[in-house]
Structures are given as structure tokens and as C-alpha cells.
Specification:
Structural class: mainly alpha
Distance between the termini: 19 Å
Largest sheet: 2 strands, parallel
Helix content: 25-40%
CATH architecture: Orthogonal Bundle
Number of strands: 4
Length: about 110
């Protein structure tokens, strides 16, 4: 019998589903976990992500489309997202955010 995944492992499993060139939000991941008020906890789990880049925490942004935090700094997060084909505006916001948004997580 496999042990149940803890919260962080569940966050990382969902985050791994976000395809290159797309982003999701802390809140959408929290909702997909059945914990709609846990967006901050999702951010904390991603900050401790030991599986990068296989678990692409750089693809998770704020619900406004702004980049939000990143362990290696916002400039690095923006650079990686640009390399994946996304445009980042001057206020560190994903250009075309709604088109780039990924929300079809499989549990």
C-alpha cells in the first residue's frame, strides 16, 4: 500500500502538469487540491520544491498575471518564462495572461 502524499507532494504533482509556454496560479492549484483558501501554502510548497525543473514552479504566477516570488529571483523567473515563449510586460506581468492560463489539472 502506497502512503498518502503530503500537501507539498500533491502541489508538486499538479505543478508538473503545467506545459511549457503556459502558466497557472497559486489559487488554481489550491482549488485543484480541494483547498481553495490555501494559495499561500501552495506558494510555500513551491518555494521548497526540490524537483525543479521537472516540477516547473516558475510557471506558477499570481492571479493577476504578475510573476510573484521565485527562489532564484523574479528576474530569473521572467527569463525562463521568456525562453519558453511567454511575453513578460514591464510590470512583470504575463502578456496575454488569460490565453496562457492552464487550469485543466488531473488529480
Amino acid at each position: 500500500m502506497t502512503p498518502a502524499l503530503n500537501f507539498s507532494e500533491r502541489v508538486w504533482r499538479l505543478t508538473a502538469q503545467i506545459p511549457r509556454g503556459r502558466v497557472s496560479t497559486y489559487g488554481l492549484i489550491a482549488r485543484a487540491l480541494g483547498k481553495p483558501r490555501a494559495a499561500r501554502a501552495v506558494g510555500n510548497a513551491l518555494n521548497a520544491n526540490p524537483h525543479a525543473p521537472r516540477v516547473p514552479c516558475h510557471r506558477v504566477v499570481k492571479s493577476t498575471g504578475q510573476l510573484g516570488g521565485y527562489a532564484d529571483g523574479t528576474a530569473k523567473k521572467a527569463k525562463i518564462l521568456r525562453q519558453e515563449g511567454l511575453r513578460i510586460g514591464p510590470k512583470n506581468q504575463v502578456v496575454g495572461f488569460k490565453r496562457a492560463l492552464f487550469y485543466k489539472f488531473k488529480r
